[in-house]
Structure prediction request, 512 residues.
Amino acid sequence: MRAVLSLARLYFLGAMRRQAHLATLFLAVILLMLPSYINAFSLGLDAFERVAKDFGLTLIGYFGVGMGIVLASSSIPKDLETRSLYPILARPINRWQYILSHFLATAALLFLSFLFLGLALMVSISALTRTVEASLLIAVFSSYLQALIVASFCTAFSTVASPALAGTVGVFVFLIGSLPGAFIRFFLVEDRNNQFAAGAATMLKSIVPNLSIYSLKDPIVHELPFNHLYLVAITLYALVWVACAIAGAGIMFGRRDL
Amino acid sequence: MSSLAVEFKDVRKTYRTKSRTVEALKGINLRIPENQIYGFAGPNGAGKSTSIKILVGLLRPDHGEVRIFNHPGGSNQAKRLIGFLPEVTLYHEFMGALELLRIHADIAGVPKSERDDRCHAALAKVGLDDRAKSRLKEFSKGMKQRFGIAQALVGDPKLLVFDELTSGLDPRAQASLLELLVDLKSQGMTVFFSSHHLREIEKICDSVTILHNGVLQCAGPLDSVLEDEESGTRLTLEELFNKVTMPEKEEVKA
Prediction:
């Protein structure tokens, strides 16, 4: 495990060198200013708080998934391109451990980014409402789990495909996984009566993780009742999918000639 | 008789793409004794890098077997005994030499209590101990190759595998690296290295192999390989290389 953590540290520092965190800082500045702007246009209505929360959480969610896709799709291909993985894989380390170290580095960087952005949103909204809006961090955490699953798929496919293809797979998993079942039934079956498209969409939905369960924005923004055990369940669900993706990547990469 | 460091038994490897199939190794048999400097020569595309990648476990042979100190090639037991420096490697240049070497020591399974001592010893061996805290991006190409040797040494291997070690270096840096290889041999290590510089192989190697089109043309102790049975004279390695790798030219002459 020391080897994996040591390598993960190396890849984490490498990702930092690529200045991925600067995009996080930029978004954090936007999030810090967002509630004030929305408040200025709210004409005295108190709905600004919900709008700012909703808009901020949506921004964080999409940004995190995008960041996860970019980081996870490119880190292993970059190692292959520079051949810096040769002296590493010639060591007594299994290829799945190498993949795991890359994924852990991505996961750590995403965690810090989500935490930073979540805190920026919380501070900016709390400053206007004069109450500590800690529940926002729950929604941010669920978005993090969602980004983690998408990143694990990108990491897996980047072991056998180009960064562009691995990234496309990530976008595909995100879109299909986030698609609500009701959307398929309504638009494809009831509205358009397109049984084939509905069947294909249902099949695709059943082979990719269900990411719609990570949408905790509505209960948090509208302060609806929320069972905290749900958070445990969706965390376990994410860990299972991540483990499957990394194990699959280990098998695929293990067979690959370098 | 010394034991074997490396053994290739009828190793074959074919690369298949959509448009063509290339037989890179056509049944290689090779036995490398322990505590030797073993030179590996051949023209571009002869199969040297493929052989080396199979040796260090980056490629799997389609057929045959490789054994490293009697452990199966590619296994973690075999990898523990190997230190490898590939032909072209771009290191994580933003890191300091000691910092990156520590990571390599961790991957090589060096106990944490010994890690720093081993890293400093490896850097001292290649003459970079005074640059331990410098970032790799500040190093010249020769220094990077020296660092590469240090990372190969940090796991305390018995077999060192270097692919085109002196490629692109100036004569002084080349000579200094060759001296280092001789020194490593004197410390009990087996050194296996490929090179296009035939004179350096001739200068420091105990044994040599010439590979051409995926077939071993000759292999063995340098003196016996260079002995030309037809004329009864000793060839230079360059003459032998030309003789075994350019049969088409001779046919044209005839």
User: Anything to note?
Assistant: The CA atoms of residues 92 and 199 of chain B lie 32 Å apart. The mean pLDDT of chain B is 87. The interface with chain A takes residues 15, 53, 56-60, 76-77, 79-80, 82, 84-86, 88-92, 94-95, 100, 102-104, 106-109, 112, 148, 151-152, 155, 161 of chain B (CB under 8 Å).
